[in-house]
Automatic annotation (TrEMBL), chain A:
Cellular location(s): Cell inner membrane
UniProt-listed NCBIfam families: proV
Positions of transmembrane segments: none
Keyword Repeat: no
CBS domain location: 284-340
InterPro entries: AAA+_ATPase, ABC_osmolyte_uptake_ATP-bind, ABC_transporter-like_ATP-bd, ABC_transporter-like_CS, CBS_dom, CBS_dom_sf, Gly-betaine_transp_ATP-bd, P-loop_NTPase
Enzyme class, spelled out: translocase
Membrane topology: Peripheral membrane protein
Name of the molecule in the record: Quaternary amine transport ATP-binding protein
Family: Belongs to the ABC transporter superfamily.
TrEMBL record, chain B:
Native source species: Vreelandella glaciei
Segments forming domain ABC transmembrane type-1: 89-268
Record-level Gene Ontology MF annotations: amine transmembrane transporter activity; carnitine transmembrane transporter activity
One GO process term, biological-process aspect: glycine betaine transport
Compartments where found: Cell membrane
One CC-aspect GO term: ATP-binding cassette (ABC) transporter complex
Protein name: Proline/glycine betaine ABC transporter permease
Length: 400, 275
């Protein structure tokens, strides 16, 4: 986790009690009681208890938990569709739970777009009018909002459907409208409440992929709720795991899989963690390009450019792995007038045998995540494993 | 031991007497205003020759409901004309239109308010039950001291009797809007007004229209009964037939009421569908 990244939303000590006497429940909670006891003693439901986490600028944070874990309550507390009982939610210096009505409206308009599980499109409005909704509410001029909404519909691949009504579209298309409505609004944070859960599995995978693509373009701070671990692993930069209204673990997908915080998480990931029978070979991809030891720096650089990569593995005549050449090292070699790339190679990368268990690979992706080299007994380079491939492979195994 | 009878009737009467004397200025003003409205509408409808009005109504039916409704309208209205009941039919129509308009003007805001406030909802619903289940004739009695004998009293009684469904359906329509759509509107920062006019009202429109349809039907039935306190129209034809014991005349006027009712019903329903 990178502690120095700018924080967009800071959640501290957030609790939510459903019922008429929230303070009683909070008192009992402070005495160490858990949700079922509190319900029995006071009739109050402790929906969320003492939740703290940060959402970093530009990240895709997944909040994951089973039904009843409080994840839907949590996302609704963020934009205060549900009033909180105690705690702070600070976005750009504003504490949302204490905002007055007018300031709250302003805050919602500026900061939050939301995508809903069952789409929540307005049936009496066309696709275009649905996409314009947020802008219309904010009083954006007609011609301008028309253009913005049109662009965002185009972005989600719904060009030509502007005048259709939501009930004329399939589920996947309806959720694209929901996404377009959120994107058009251009708020600083995107809230997605089980946004893909109502879609069938194939469309769901597509939508996840598209969300990742959009995300890589826009870098929008996103809070994504799901009950599906595969989905969480597939799209999340980080995951907050909830159980019975409490945070169980916060971490990257790799951290959750490799260092589960407790038995609950361990049991949870068991379904997915088929990695113990999967090996590096199953996630391995053939190399798009390698450099030979005889190549000069210009040739190596050329290859990197051709394949749009910023590092390249260098092999000898028998395809034995010699090292890794990075883009800056290659440029340096050219500047210094060197004919050979050998002195500029780095050994600062990971190599594994074909039968290395997949779950061991998570920990190897360092910050500068080079593809992991897969070699055979003769040190010959067979292929590479990239970060995404490991997760893909696990997700696929989880489905079978 | 004898329990004394509660003088409920006496209380109501003295209350009504007090209202009548204290607010006579107001009731007289309302009376004059309403009477002028009715007279204007009546005379403008009478000013048109029968065939022209018939044609206009048929055209309206054709535009909103299609050919079959138009043919039905022509046949029905021609029958009324032929029976010599054109004039009372117009008078009844005027009363219905007027009473319905007043009822809607009151019912829509009340219905919206009751939908948005639970407290108001709890107050208004029993009042509506009272208004709807009280025998309709009873409203006629206080109407007379308030507004005197005639059309204005008829409209007063009719408005009270026919308003509840419009209020109920408006409330129901707004409350039926799915929670997730309200959440969506809230999430994008909609004010109460924006939520009402951009989401809740448009989505409840079909239900509201169903309520208005009910109100029109009830208004028609009440306007006929109101002949007892001197309202003009088809009701007074029926009333006269009763007093003279002439079943033939009574049925003729009754059939005219049925035709008018069906026309109004189909028209408002097709209005609902075109939305």
């Amino acid at each position: 986790m990178d502690e120095t990244r700018p924080v967009k939303i800071k959640v501290r000590g957030l609790s939510k009690v459903f019922g008429k006497h929230p303070q009683k429940a909070i008192e009992l909670r402070n005495q160490g009681m858990k949700r079922p006891e509190i319900l029995e003693k006071t009739g109050q439901t402790l929906g969320l208890s003492n939740i703290s986490f940060d959402v970093y600028e530009g990240e895709l944070l997944v909040i994951m938990g089973l039904s009843g874990s409080g994840k839907s309550t949590l996302i609704r507390c963020l934009n205060r569709l549900i009033e909180t009982t105690e705690g702070e939610i600070v976005i750009d210096g504003e504490n949302i739970p204490t905002l007055k009505e007018k300031a709250l409206l302003e805050c919602r308009r500026r900061h939050f777009s939301m995508v809903f599980q069952n789409f929540a499109l307005f049936p009496h409005r066309t696709v275009q009018q649905n996409a314009e909704f947020g802008l219309e509410i904010r009083g954006v001029e007609k011609a301008e909002r028309h253009k913005i909404a049109h662009d965002s519909l185009k972005q989600v691949g719904l060009e030509g459907w502007e005048d259709a009504y939501p009930n004329q579209l399939s589920g996947g298309m309806q959720q694209r409208v929901g996404l377009a409505r959120a994107l058009a609004n251009d708020a600083t944070v995107l809230l997605m409440d089980e946004a893909f859960s109502a879609l069938d599995p194939l469309i769901r995978k597509d939508m996840q992929q598209e969300l990742l693509q959009l995300q890589s373009k826009m870098q929008k701070t996103t809070v994504f709720i799901t009950h599906d671990l595969d989905e969480a692993l597939n799209i999340g930069d980080r995951i907050v795991l909830l159980k019975d209204g409490e945070v169980v673990q916060i971490g990257t997908p790799e951290e959750i899989l490799t260092k589960p915080a407790d038995d609950y998480v361990r049991r949870f990931i068991e379904g997915v963690d088929r990695s113990r029978i999967l090996t590096a070979e199953s996630a391995m991809r053939p190399l798009r390009s390698t450099a030979r030891e005889s190549d000069g720096p210009r040739t190596a650089l050329h290859r990197m450019r051709d394949h749009a990569i910023d590092s390249i593995y260098v092999v000898d005549r028998d395809r034995r792995l010699l090292g890794l050449l990075e883009v800056d090292a290659a440029s340096r070699a050219i500047e210094e007038g060197s004919d050979s790339i050998i002195p500029y190679l780095t050994q600062d990368f990971r190599k594994v045998p074909m039968d290395e268990p997949l779950h061991n690979l998570f920990a190897m992706f360092s910050e500068k995540s080079f593809p992991i080299a897969v070699i055979d007994q003769q040190e010959q380079l067979l292929g590479v494993v990239v970060k995404g491939a490991v997760l893909d492979e696990l997700a696929r195994a989880g489905e079978q | 031991m004898e329990i004394p009878r509660i003088p409920l009737g006496d209380w109501i009467e003295s209350g009504l007497t007090w209202l009548t004397s204290e607010f006579s200025m107001v009731t007289r003003g309302i009376s004059r205003f309403t009477q002028t409205g009715i007279d204007t509408l009546n005379s403008s409808l009478f000013w048109l020759p029968e065939w022209a009005l018939l044609g206009l109504i048929a055209l309206l039916c054709w535009r909103l409901g299609g050919t079959r409704l138009a043919i039905g309208a022509i046949a029905g209205l021609a029958l009324i004309w032929n029976l010599g009941l054109w004039e009372p039919m117009i008078e009844t129509l005027t009363l219905v239109v007027f009473a319905t308009l007043v009822a809607i003007v009151i019912a829509l805001p009340v219905g919206i308010a009751a939908a948005l406030s639970n407290r108001l909802y709890r107050v208004i619903m029993p009042i509506l039950d009272f208004m709807q289940t009280m025998p309709a004739f009873v409203y006629l009695i206080p109407a007379i001291p308030f507004f005197g004998i005639g059309s204005v009293s008829a409209i007063f009684a009719t408005v009270i009797f026919s308003m509840p469904p419009a209020i109920r359906f408006t409330t129901l329509g707004i409350r039926q809007v799915p929670v997730e759509l309200i959440e969506a509107a809230d999430a994008y920062g909609a004010t109460r007004g924006q939520k009402l006019f951009k989401v809740q009202l448009p989505l409840s429109l079909p239900t509201v229209m169903a309520g208005i349809n009910q109100t029109i039907m009830l208004a028609l039935s009440m306007v006929v009964i109101a002949a007892m306190i001197g309202a003009d129209g088809l009701g007074s034809e029926v009333w006269r037939a009763i007093q003279r014991l002439r079943p033939g005349d009574g049925f003729e006027a009754g059939i005219a009421v049925v035709i008018l009712a069906m026309l109004l019903d189909r028209l408002t329903q097709s209005l609902r569908k075109t939305r």
